[in-house]
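ok so I'm stuck.
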Amino acid sequence: MTMAHDPETDGAKMSFAQDMSYGDYLSMDGLLSAQKPLSQAHDEMLFIVQHQTSELWMRLILHELGAARELMLAGRSGEVFKMLSRVARIFEQLNNAWDVLRTMTPSDYSTFRDSLGASSGFQSHQYRLIEFMLGNRNTAMMKVHEHRPELHAKLTAELGRPSLYHVALRALEAELDLRFDPAVYRMDAPHAPDAAVIDAWSQIYRNPQGHWVMYELAEKLVDLEDYFRRWRFNHVTTVERVIGFKRGTGGTSGVKYLRRMLEVELFPELWHLRGAL
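replied:
not stuck anymore, here's the structure
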């Protein structure tokens, strides 16, 4: 007969009346009490956990992108590669999460959809901050957050900072000893492709050994956007699978709106140059 192992015999601490435990460190009481379904539908818990965990991952994305930008501003571009790789892998994690949500059928969703009211994922201020940090600065989306001055202020503050891509382009200028048109650095609108920027990145790609840090930075940015695009695509297909072409709960056209978002390019020059190499 096998005896149950007592981890205390291995020296494990078993009493936490006076010390911080795992649950204390992670604030588990608050975290696990944050799921509050508004209906009796079984699948509403899945829907809530899916979106709450996505917000936690986005919290980490913002942490990583903020640190990466500061390092690049300090001229330490080579140190951001790990952070950008981590962000790409977070988007891979978010992609995998759609597979779980897709186990919810249209019949399942219909049992609690009315409980959502006008709430919708496109109202996520963290998602909007990520887009603003990466360069897709659609200021029209800020209106959604006017009822929360502290969140609106965060978005406004982000518009006052150069995007991550802006900082990368400054590093590109320094690498090649050139200057782009000031319009390239517009702070309050989505980044638009520029011929001079395409030419500059093309110089890097034609001589990667001579510009290895910038070449590696470019590929990390492409990798990040690649996974971001997949996340958007999986979002579209999941929504279409669950609600078809109904309007979204937040009032958008649903799938049609999300398909338009697939056309957005974060770092367009890094994609456009490929056909000319």
